[in-house]
Design goal:
It contains 15 helices and 8 strands. It has 315 residues and is α/β, with parallel strands linked by helices. The protein has one domain: Alpha-Beta Barrel (TIM Barrel).
């Protein structure tokens, strides 16, 4: 009997959610995603010290720290692309989450570094927070052929706005949605299909397939394999190494849960969000408002830690 990981790969693209190259080699994902927290974790490991030195050297002695960070993201990305056959996601500085112009400039700088290294932009996804400003920046980038991964996505309004903007891929955060609901209701039953993160991604997937949006749905931020099994059939799932290992150890049958044909038959109404409607809908969703803001704060804090680490190494 094939493992659950092999069964999942039959109808869902498996993506490694890590900055650790050994884990990528072990589980053979098609793509890989990174974020500031994952890069910070990897950068602190002795085996990756040479990559930090390389980023500092490539940037040059007069480079700003944010430029050294860009180099580091790309250095990691280039190594990842030697391992995975598909795409790598590299994240724009979270401190630009409410700055459309700044996000555009940073995304173009990152993609230029990849292209200078000989990597086609089709193999890179620029990760941007799912704020209104981030979505509008990504809409412009997509028209330039720079593909985007809209991250820190917690609400239906964010997902609809991304689809209408023609974004390549979104990353709804399953586990962080569950975290919020468990904190509010510690005794609640959120198992299986009752997991609020699973419910959110299922709703988004169904809506996209019902109305023919090309934007890919990549479930992210999982807390357990149960969430992954409930979303089997999603376009992509980005999974951390410990959960990939659990799936690789099990040969229990895995049943496809999300299917385009079933989604097409769903009884749904099409909706649309301009900026005012988007901001109001997000404000009405306390979980999405709080988790988006928290995610931006956490990623921003880890960027600052990375800058301090690189500054100390640079001397």
């Amino acid at each position: 009997m094939p493992t659950q990981l092999d069964q999942l790969k039959a109808f869902t693209v498996v993506v490694a959610d890590t900055g650790d190259f050994q884990s990528m080699r072990a589980f053979a994902p098609r793509d890989a995603t990174t974020n500031p927290s994952l890069i910070l974790k990897a950068a602190a490991m002795p085996e990756y010290a040479a990559l930090l030195d390389q980023a500092i050297a490539d940037a040059g002695p007069d480079a700003r720290l944010d430029q050294v960070i860009d180099r580091l993201l790309v250095v990691f990305g280039l190594e990842i692309l030697k391992i995975v056959p598909g795409r790598v996601s590299s994240e724009v500085d979270a401190r630009l989450s409410f700055d459309t112009t700044g996000t555009l400039a940073k995304a173009r700088e990152i993609i230029a570094l990849y292209e200078k290294a000989g990597i086609s932009r089709d193999r890179v996804l620029i990760k941007i927070a799912s704020t209104w400003e981030g979505i509008k920046a990504a809409e412009v980038l997509e028209k330039e052929g720079i593909h985007c991964n809209l991250t820190l996505l917690f609400s239906f309004a964010q997902a609809v706005a991304c689809a209408e903007a023609g974004i390549t891929l979104i990353s709804p955060f399953v586990g962080r949605i569950l975290d919020w609901h468990k904190a509010k209701n510690p005794t609640g039953d959120f198992s299986g299909a009752q997991d609020p993160g699973v419910i959110s991604v299922t709703q988004i997937y169904t809506y996209y397939k019902k109305f023919g949006y090309a934007t890919e749905v990549m479930g992210a931020s999982f807390r357990n394999t149960g969430e992954i099994l409930e979303l089997a059939g999603c376009d992509l799932l980005t999974i951390a190494p410990p959960l990939l290992a659990e799936l690789a150890k099990s040969d229990a049958p895995l049943v496809r849960q999300l299917d385009p044909a079933c989604a097409a038959a769903a009884d749904l109404q099409k909706v649309s969000f301009d900026e005012k409607a988007f901001r109001f809908a997000l404000n009405e969703d306390a979980m999405a408002t709080e988790k988006t803001a928290e995610g931006i704060r956490l990623f921003s804090a880890d960027i600052v830690k990375l800058e301090k680490l690189l500054a100390a190494k640079r001397g």
